[in-house]
Amino acid sequence: MASGSRWAPSAALLFSPRARKGGGGGWGVALKAIGCILFAGVSFRLLCSFSSSSSLSPEIKEGKCDLFHGEWLPNPSGPAYTNSSCRFIDDHQNCMMNGRPDIGYLYWRWKPYECDLPPFDEVRFLASMRNKVWGLIGDSILRNQVQSFICLLSKADEPVEVYHDKEFKNRRWHFQSYNFTVSLLWAPFLIKSEVSENENGESTSEIQLHLDVLEPTWISQYEGFDYVVIAGGQWFLKTAVYWENGKVIGCHYCQDKNLTEIGFEHLYRRALQEALRFISSTHHKPVVLFRTWAPDHFENGEWFSGGTCNRVSPYRKGEYSGKYMDNVMRGIELEEFNKAIAAVNSSGGVVNLKLLDTYSLSSMRPDGHAGPYRMFHPFAHGNEDASSVQKDCLHWCVPGPIDAWNDLIMKLVLN
Predict the structure, then answer these.
(1) What domain of life does the UniProt record list for this protein's source (predicted)?
(2) pLDDT of 243 higher than 50
(3) Which of 140, 148, 280, 362 does the annotation list as catalytic?
C-alpha cells in the first residue's frame, strides 16, 4: 500500500462502497431449526446461566445495571433477520451469501450482568422516532452498524433510499410510514481530511489532516439532526501529514519526509477534543451517542501479513484482554469523553451526550467477523481454499454480533 501506515487496514477492508440489491442464499428458512439443534449440546453451566438470568426483572435491576459489561449467552431463537429477509446488507458483510459454512455465531445474545438487554423492537423504536432525523457520522465500521440498523428497522417499514453519492459513502433512507430519516455521513477522522486513495488503498500522496477544523460534511448538516451517532478510530492509524493554523506541524509514519513525527495518539485525542467541544458548545442540542473503539481480531499476523480470524465461538470472561492498540485508543476515548462531560457540568451547561461503549462486548466476539467470507469467490463454487483471499477481521458479518450495538442504542435512547 503506497503511503499506508503499517497499522492501517487496507481501503478494501475499511470501506466496501456499494450495497447491491438482493440477499442470496435460501438458508433463512431452516435457520431457526438448525440453531436449536446446534445449541442442544451447550454446557449445563451456560444453560443454567441463561435460564436464571432471563428471570431477572429489567425494571428492578435497571438502576444499577451497566449495559456494557456482561457475557454472551446462547440464544436458540437466532437473529432478528437474515440475509434473505434483508436486502440492505453490503456484499462484503454478507457472510452467508459469500459461503460461510457455519452459523453458530448467529446464536448468541449479549447479557449485561445486572439486568437484561431487550432485543431491538422496531415498531416501538419507529413509533418513538416519528418525524425525527438521525445522523450517523464516521467510517466504514459505522456503515457496518448502519446496515444492521436498517435491517432491523425494515422489519416494520420498508425504507426508501432517497440519496447516495457516487461512491455510496454518504447515504440517506426515509421510512415513509413514520416520516423517519436515517442519514449516513462519511467522516472517518471527524476532522477535515484530504485523502487520495482508491478502493485498493493505493494513494498518490499522504493524507492531509487539519487538526483544528472539523469535517464540513457533518458540521453543515448537524442542526438538522435530532439524534447523532459519532464513531471512528481505525483511520487515525494511517500515514498522514498534520496541519494546524494553516501550517504543517508534523506527520505520522512519514519515513521519507523531513517532518516531525507526531503519534496517532495525539491526532486522535485532538480530533475528539474538537468534535466534543463543538457538540458541547453549539446551541443545537440533539441526543449524541459516542460509540467507542471497534476491535479487530487478527491472529497469526495482521491484514497485510496473512492474519486470520477462524474462531467459531465467543471468548468467555477473562479469556481475552485486548490488543495494545485497543487499550490505547479506548483509553483516549474514555478520557476525552469524561473530560467533556466534566467541562459541561462545571460550566452549568447542557449536553445530551451519552457513551455507547461497545468495546467489551465486541472484543469477546472473534467469531463474528467476515474473515475470508468478505468475497463471493472462491467459496461460491465449492472451492474451500481461502489462502489467497485477504481476510477481514475488522468488519462484522450482518446479521451478527453488531446487532447488539443497536440493541444498546434502543435501550439508551428510549430509556
Answers:
(1) Eukaryota
(2) yes
(3) 140
